[in-house]
């Protein structure tokens, strides 16, 4: 089954404790992206990657890091989480230039 | 001015009603127009996609694009409780892979 998986699905942590949210896709897509979704603000892009070892900032990259060492994986790293990073996070993938992005199930993060 | 504006909702309608969801945009480079549907506790899924002005039908769903007015709409005929979800408009430029999303409109169809 073609899918994007994210782990964990739910996470409660404390300010300053480094965390990683994993994302993996099995569709051989070149393009991968991370979004955060907040009430009244919609989906905002954090970082994206056009291919292995190629990443770039989206609209709201502050406080986040990513890496793309393998085509299928695109982890999101919060080195020192803060309460304003409490949000619902989605990973997505697509072909380069494609209009259909496939989304993961989401990770609900709470930073206390 | 925001690149994309979407009617915020929420919207609550009785089963069988015709639903109209609307978005406007300001970026003339947007050439691909999409509607994504997001059920509660799920990721968004592509519902409809078009790249030209006019109407595109798919069952009970019609996507309408007016490039001259920079306005897109999604119509749902004979709405069903299973249509209850958040609907997000999305746009893409001709080149590149980046999508720009509206804020989403939460729709509830009551039996």
Task: Name the features.
A: 112 residues, mainly beta, 7-stranded mixed beta sheet, 51% strand, B: 111 residues, 5-stranded antiparallel beta sheet
Please characterize this protein's 3D structure.
- The complex is a heterodimer of chains A (112) and B (111).
- Chain A is an all-beta fold.
- Chain A contains no helices and eleven strands.
- Chain A is 0% helix and 51% strand.
- In chain A, strands 2, 4, 5, 6, 9, 10 and 11 form a seven-stranded mixed beta sheet that branches. In chain A, strands 1-3-8-7 form a four-stranded antiparallel beta sheet, with no helix packed on it.
- Chain A is globular.
- With 111 residues, chain B is mostly beta strands.
- In chain B, 0% of the residues lie in helices and 58% in strands.
- Chain B has strands at residues 4-6, 11-14, 19-25, 30-38, 45-50, 54-58, 61-66, 71-76, 85-93, 99-101, 105-110.
- In chain B, a hairpin with a 2-residue loop joins strand 6 (54-58) and strand 7 (61-66).
- In chain B, 32% of the residues are buried.
- At the A-B interface, strand 5 and strand 9 of A face strand 5 of B.
In one word, what is the shape of chain A?
A: globular
Q: What is the C-alpha radius of gyration of chain A, as a whole number of Å?
A: 13 Å
Low-confidence stretches of chain B: none
Radius of gyration of chain B: 13 Å
Instruction: Give the total of beta strands of chain A.
Output: 11
Strand residues, percent of chain B: over 45%
Order of helices and strands of chain B: EEEEEEEEEEE
Specify the helix fraction band of chain A. under 10%
Q: Which bin fits the share of residues in helices of chain B?
A: under 10%
Give the amount of beta strand of chain A, in percent: over 45%
For the largest beta-sheet of chain B, the strand count, sense and barrel status come to: 6 strands, mixed
Q: What is the structural class of chain A? A: mainly beta
Uncertain residue segments of chain A: none
Q: Please report the distance between the alpha carbons of the first and last residues of chain B.
A: 38 Å
Mean pLDDT of chain A: 95
Tell me, briefly, the overall form of chain B: globular
Helix/strand class of chain B: mainly beta
| Count of alpha and pi helical runs of chain B | 0
């Amino acid at each position: 089954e073609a899918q994007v998986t994210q782990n964990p699905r739910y996470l409660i942590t404390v300010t300053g404790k480094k965390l990683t949210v994993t994302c993996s896709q099995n569709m051989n897509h070149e393009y991968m992206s991370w979004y955060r979704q907040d009430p009244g603000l919609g989906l905002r892009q954090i970082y994206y990657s056009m291919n292995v070892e190629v990443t770039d900032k989206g609209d709201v990259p502050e406080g986040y890091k990513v890496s793309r060492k393998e085509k299928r994986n695109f982890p999101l790293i919060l080195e020192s989480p803060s309460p304003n990073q409490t949000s619902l996070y989605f990973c997505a993938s697509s072909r380069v230039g494609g209009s259909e992005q496939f989304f993961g199930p989401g990770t609900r993060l709470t930073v206390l | 001015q925001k690149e994309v504006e979407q009617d915020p909702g929420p919207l609550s309608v009785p089963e069988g009603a015709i639903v109209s969801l609307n978005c406007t945009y300001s970026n003339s480079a947007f050439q691909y127009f999409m509607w994504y549907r997001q059920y509660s506790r799920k990721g968004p899924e592509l519902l409809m996609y078009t790249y030209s002005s006019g109407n595109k039908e798919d069952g009970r769903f019609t996507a309408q694009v007016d490039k001259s007015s920079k306005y897109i709409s999604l119509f749902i005929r004979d709405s069903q409780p299973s249509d209850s979800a958040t609907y997000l408009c999305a746009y893409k430029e001709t080149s590149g892979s980046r999508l720009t999303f509206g804020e989403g409109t939460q729709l509830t169809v009551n039996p």
